[in-house]
TrEMBL record, chains A, B:
It comes from Rhizobium meliloti (strain 1021) (Ensifer meliloti). One of its GO terms (biological process) is RNA processing. This is tRNA/rRNA methyltransferase. Keywords: Methyltransferase, Transferase. One of its GO terms (molecular function) is RNA binding. The keyword Ligase does not apply. The lineage of its organism: Bacteria, Pseudomonadati, Pseudomonadota, Alphaproteobacteria, Hyphomicrobiales.
Length: 275, 275
């Protein structure tokens, strides 16, 4: 059972300070705190909290008109997670913009295993999504959503990629950011070296790749590497690894990075019997 | 060669009335007019204009700081298309929001062939993307981008789908909306009937589909049908056609509709030798 609902009438109430102006603060550091938004993401947050994977829910903030509809969802959180409720005017003043969804949670991601520890802990049969230079939170969220759908064991990013724990990336990932192990550190070159040392066959996805994506052979440990939205993977990286391309009609912009990763992950997961 | 640049100093100048408040007007009818935004889309607009496929450029509006960088692009438009230039403050006052891209065109789509005429004119070997109930402009744009990448001959939508000629859909499609034949009319049931009568094998994409997407056989005429973002295709539709699913890990939200269509189109285009 959940605790009684706690009514908030003043946007400056210190109990909901963590939700203040989340739109602006979305692009600043928050000491491991993050904002989960919408019922789909809150469901994933509740699951991650229960499973104790370093993700914890700290507070929930609801628009009063949403309370009745989310009773079953609230019951999935431990009773010591406070549930605050606000009327529309107060809710919008807290969040800093018109939050139509009206369902927010403040969460915390505790220090997670770093890249090398994560690689060391992967099962013998593994599929990794590696990404470098991803700067768009929509694409980041979409990469995680696809990674979860196709059974990826970990998402590993270089340090120039954006933080998947931002509100919009979490939302677009439909909460997969909260459940998929990930690390974001170091350079793409280091990441490739660590993966190869751990026995991964690393495939770089590029319109200039040599193999057709449909011709990638099965392997116990495969890592798929995708690059920045605009330029893709640089030649210095592509020359060190096997490369694959997704055939498409000529003369058009290459596919969106998340779309390309989705097609490739579906293919690699299929041939390795992971889906 | 292009005409001299025409300087605009007053946002109320009648010559640029077509660009006024494009953000608000984006969701209202405009008698076949549309806004193209960014250099990638303008390049597609210039190509469509030259090829005389019922798409015409009427005017271009540039932020003055962008002029030098787009000289080569301007040269691709006929000289009778006026090019207006405005300083940042005036430009934003015209467009109604902060247009960082600073590269806009007003275009016109003339009466295009309807659904039945479009189907009647398709080549013997054809791939069609059919969509019903698509309400999100991002998804619509992404569907067109994928359709173009994988050699789709026409995109056919039911009348409940949103208009692909909206600014955001055109932008997300990287201009494919301007070059791919499409029609948006009638019901999904009518569309299926017309396609089947024309010899198309219609495959509905659904998490509850019976065939694996990788097992769809080649066919001279294939249509892939996708449904609304939330509910997918209704059972009344699915029961009339062959259905395919994209395997994924259980217990997660189904894939985004554009992502699912991208994976399926890549597969169908591959087995039919279209890419």
């Amino acid at each position: 059972m959940t605790e009684p609902l706690l009514r908030i009438d003043d946007p400056a109430d210190p109990r909901i300070a963590g939700f203040l102006s989340i739109k602006e603060r979305d692009l600043t550091g928050r000491q491991g705190r993050f904002i989960a938004e919408g019922t789909v993401v809150l469901r994933m947050l509740a699951a991650a909290h229960r499973e104790g994977r370093g993700i914890a829910a700290e507070a929930i903030l609801l628009l009063e008109s949403r309370v009745a509809g989310v009773a079953e969802l609230l019951a999935q959180f431990p009773p010591d997670v406070p549930v605050y409720v606000a009327a529309s005017r107060v809710f919008d003043a807290i969040a800093g913009f018109n939050m139509h969804r009206g369902v927010l949670a403040l969460g915390r991601r505790d220090a997670a295993p770093g890249r090398d520890a994560l690689i060391a802990g992967l099962p013998q049969s593994s599929l990794v999504l590696a990404a470098c230079g991803i700067s768009n939170h929509d694409n980041m969220g979409s990469l995680f959503r696809n990674a979860a759908a196709f059974g990826v064991d970990a998402v590993l990013m270089d340090s120039t990629s954006c933080d998947p724990m931002y509100r919009k990336a979490i939302r677009v990932s439909v909460g997969s950011v909260l459940t998929l192990p990930f690390a974001r550190e170091g350079t793409a070159a280091e990441l490739i070296e660590r993966l190869q040392t751990a026995g991964f066959v690393v495939w770089g996805l590029s319109p200039r790749g040599t193999a057709d994506i449909n011709a990638i052979p099965p392997a116990p440990r495969t890592a798929l590497l995708v690059g920045t939205e605009g330029e893709g993977l640089p030649e210095t990286i592509l020359s060190q690894i096997r490369t694959a391309r997704i055939r498409q009609r000529p003369g058009l912009d290459s596919l969106n990075v998340a779309m390309a990763a989705g097609i490739a992950l579906h293919q690699v997961a299929s041939i390795n019997g992971r889906i």
